[in-house]
Amino acid sequence: MNRRALLKNLGFSLSAGLVLPPLLSACQGEDPAPKTDYQGTVAIIGAGAAGLYAADILKAKGINVVILEASDRIGGRVRTLKSTDKSSPSLIFNSQTEMGSDFPNELGASFVKGADSAWGKFVQQLKITTVNVPVTAIDNYVVDGLIKTTADLASDADFIAAKNFYTNLASQSGSGTVQAAIEGAGINSRMHAILNAWIGNSYATTNDRLSMLQLADSVGMQTRSNELLTLTDNPMQDALLSRFSKVVTDVRMNHQVKQVEYSGSTVTVEGVNSITGESFSVEAEKVIVAVPVSILKAGDITFTPALPAAKTTAMSTMEMDASVRVLLDFKANFWGETTGFIDGASQAPEYFNSGVGRSELSRTLAVTLSGAKAAEYSALGKGMLPKLVAELDALYAGKATNHIRYDPSDNMVAVIQDWTLEPFIKGGSSYSKPGGTNQHRKDLSAALQSKLFFAGEATDYTGEFGTINGALLSAERAAAEILVSIG
Known about the structure:
31% helix; five-stranded parallel β-sheet; 22 strands; eight-stranded mixed β-sheet; alpha/beta
């Protein structure tokens, strides 16, 4: 079967022209039928990007799918703030007053990494307009306690050295952490916080925990372009659900899977309704596990037979750190209309002017914290807000306090999404600790007995772990493995 015929056979699911996994591209013979005659059911655990896409591919082939989602919403770590959202232990509204933004506020994944990436092609397919942040905005940095632009630092030898290290990540070496590699390269400590914002925080951890070897290998494998895009008007979560609207009705929400029994001819998936506590059981011929690696590591799902040693070893080399997103609303933009990121501060590694290129009223800062600082702030709850405002005051001569919005009850208008406290996610995204390799991600992704398959960003071994791209590519692989297994 040639590639054009295969794309046609797979239907709309792959019409964006994504690179096909070898298992799909290896088909032979011409078969114009768009669907299989397979009568079995595929159960998919998790309704994030990976679970939805895998279901979309399989359903397009005429295969019956059931998607089991433990929470009460669809999208996983893709989440946009909605006016209908209710407060919870992990989603904290400091005020009942709505944000003043005239653009979507992302609580999870915020960017399209690469216009030609897996997610980027879907965004193009949906004809969604985007903003290329590096082209539109000017990044600011905290250096020696002062705000500096790239132009200000053009002749700063330490900044140049840090930029070179970051630009050449794929060629960095060392069996330890990224931080150890930075220190080994002799980069001045003035730049360590900036490098942590660029690298560690963007991988949902910190440089002193992230494997240099695995990161270098992954960056070296990436073939996509380097655009960093925001969606101009469309919420990220709506874009995801729109793209996979054909399978949204197949999602059974509040279905928390507790046990997967795959020793027999079929697979039995059992669990409880996370609201009522009522038990459920689903019988399927094949199952795709598309939950965060944190859920697997915690043993929240029991497998019978137990997962083989290769998988447990693989999981032991990965981690998911605490992760917090904070939205701060102001009456005026005091950091600069064209400012993009503000990197390298001591309290928050990254402040982002989230309305840049999308609004003339860009008065919201999105703050992203990962790792130890996120864990510290998670314990503070609403108490983290004064600390962030105080840091901004120190950088901008008290302007944060002067311009922060308050409601009539004198509460700051702010929202906190604490991914650490999401019971069915438990953190940001996967990263590899020292000793972790790409082979470990392959081991985690490996199918078992042609009945149990694995997807999700942690199982991506194409260099895109920790991203929507990685989740989508892993879904393609898992769906391809199922299609091959059923002939």
